[in-house]
């Protein structure tokens, strides 16, 4: 399917690995020029170079922490005039509800709620002026059903979801859509590190921890970054202009819901 977005320009935050990289790859494959970001410059530049040569698109890389004010200023300066915004950042650490302090919540809110909001506030006006734009926020299945050990994620991402629900309806008259993609378990470094935590806690191997978790997913496997990226690219496409303010769960059926 031709996504109809060749020649457009996208900012994909936190995109040297994992789900962000999946989105960057799928957009590049659709002919979209990119601004990519991550903290580690080496992995970021390696992936930027690969996408440039594989898909013949322009790729600019901005190495910085997207959750810091300085990092946001750097990325926003490089991304002026983009048509597509994909927000993403690392997820908060696991823990117990009674252990988190105010500072832990502030950090999680900064990374997983206020950072995407800052990017939307900075880049939506340009899209609205042009009468076309797409925003996809990478959140989590924890927005639909809480994950006990990820209480910081449950809290911060739900706040972002409320902001998107209201804002998406206000920018839609200008041809701009905002939607959220809710990953369940995907095979990325983040999933490896969560499996590592379970393995250490239960005295089992990482492979055993993964097998246990795969057994809880109706598809009996983790998702891939390519599947995730393809869905993101579709939401950014010309075909998705009537999808507004939605929360799309990509979890292999793991969240047991009727709707
Ligand atoms: P990942 O494989 O660990 O990749 C994270 C990417 O983001 C890397 O490129 C990393 O590069 C970059 N990054 C992290 N923190 C950053 C920051 N502060 N500023 C700029 N770049 C940053 O993680 P993932 O699995 O793709 O997860 C992406 C998001 O989806 C996370 O918020 C995660 O909690 C959420 N999620 C993931 C899953 C899953 O199963 N994978 C499920 C639900 C939710 P650097 O380290 O070099 O900065």
TrEMBL record:
Signal peptide: none annotated. It holds the Pfam family adh_short_C2. It comes from the Bacteria. PANTHER family: 3-OXOACYL-(ACYL-CARRIER-PROTEIN) REDUCTASE, NADPH-DEPENDENT REDUCTASE BACG. Belongs to the short-chain dehydrogenases/reductases (SDR) family. This is 3-oxoacyl-[acyl-carrier protein] reductase. It comes from Ruegeria faecimaris.
């Amino acid at each position: 399917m031709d996504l109809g977005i060749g020649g457009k320009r996208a900012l994909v935050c936190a995109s040297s690995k994992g789900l962000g990289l999946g989105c960057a790859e799928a957009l590049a494959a659709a002919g979209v020029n990119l601004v990519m970001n991550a903290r580690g410059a080496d992995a970021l530049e390696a992936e930027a170079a690969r996408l440039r040569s594989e898909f013949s698109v322009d790729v600019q890389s901005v190495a910085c922490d997207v959750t810091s004010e300085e990092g946001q200023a750097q990325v926003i300066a490089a991304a002026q005039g983009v048509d597509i915004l994909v927000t993403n950042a690392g997820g908060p650490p696991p823990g117990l509800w009674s252990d988190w302090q105010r500072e832990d919540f502030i950090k999680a809110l900064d990374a997983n709620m206020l950072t995407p909001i800052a990017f939307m506030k900075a880049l939506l006006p340009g899209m609205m002026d042009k009468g076309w734009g797409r925003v996809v926020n990478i959140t989590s299945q924890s927005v639909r059903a809480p994950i006990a050990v990820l209480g910081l994620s449950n809290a911060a991402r739900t706040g972002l979801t409320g902001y998107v629900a209201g804002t998406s309806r206000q920018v839609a008259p200008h041809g701009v859509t905002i939607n959220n993609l809710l990953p369940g378990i995907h095979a990325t470094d983040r999933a490896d590190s969560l499996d590592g935590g379970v393995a250490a806690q239960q005295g089992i191997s990482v492979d055993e921890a993964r097998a246990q978790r795969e057994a809880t997913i109706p598809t009996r496997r983790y998702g891939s970054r390519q599947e995730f990226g393809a869905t993101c690219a579709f939401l950014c496409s010309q075909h998705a202009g009537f999808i507004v303010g939605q929360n799309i769960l990509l979890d292999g059926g793991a969240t047991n819901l009727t709707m």
